[in-house]
Amino acid sequence: MTDFPRTMVGGVSMPRLLVGTNWFLGYSHTSRAQDKFIRDLQTRERMADILTVFAEAGVDAIMGPHFTDALGQAVDDVEQKTGKPFTRIITPHFNILPDGPADMEPDRVFARCKEQGATFCLPHMAITDALVDRRAKQIRDLDIYTRLIREHDMIPGLSTHMPESVVYADAQGADVETYIQIYNAAGFLMQVEADWVMRIINNAKHPVMSIKPLAAGRLLPVVGLSFVWNTLRDQDMVTIGTTTADEAREIIDLSLQILERRTPDYELQGTRSKASLQTAAG
Questions:
Q1: CA–CA dist 50, 25 (Å, integer)
Q2: Domain span holding position 33
Q3: In b/e form, how buried is each residue of 124-133, taking b as 16+ CB within 10 angstroms?
Q4: Is residue 243 part of a domain?
Q5: How far apart, in whole angstroms, are the C-alpha atoms of residue 34 and residue 52?
Q6: Are 156 and 145 in contact (CB under 8 A)?
Q7: Residue 1 falls within a domain, yes or no?
Q8: H-helix or E-strand containing 14?
């Protein structure tokens, strides 16, 4: 399999496809029952099988809130098995008000991120978006946290659900190298229309790591991937999670075909209601 196309982020070579972890950790955006199903399904071994598929295709970067327990062990297993290290992108939570838990103080949280092997540290949207001041058109205190991230020898960025965050960070000259931004054809969890977010991403000063391209399973892979790959810039990335190794292979194959401007050629789902179309569909 051809290695996946790459880009540069903060001086680091990155695949344009990033491994997401919601479908490892149980964040389905569907129901509590679905969350439980994911957590029960995803053992260390299953996650390692999926990550091996990505690693062998040159998709060697992974995004998550932490790399501990079974997830961190699975990443370690695949690195040892394939000899290919993963670039870790961590999106941590931490105190932004006084008198919070001592172990959630920013300096301690960033130290843990570094211990877990993070190359990139992007405060989670729950942090970033709480700091956005729409009246002043700025992200308050961001420089405090980006400085601490640099001091812990990681590359700073920010994760957001608010399209203003990217605009304000660029305008204030924030010390960030990348952004995480929701972007999908369904507008799922997006605060403004998709064409607005498209324009914001295309005008961003730094590469963007887009997330939720399939709207948490609400879009067919070929539909969601066609939209993002055809409207993002060459320096931007798509983050996607999968529940099985076969899904990972499918996502990689579809993405490569779309990026090569080919109509995706893959085996369609077979159901009784489509029997009369079988000859036409091939």
A1: 14
A2: 12-281
A3: bbebbbebbe
A4: yes
A5: 24
A6: yes
A7: no
A8: strand 12-15
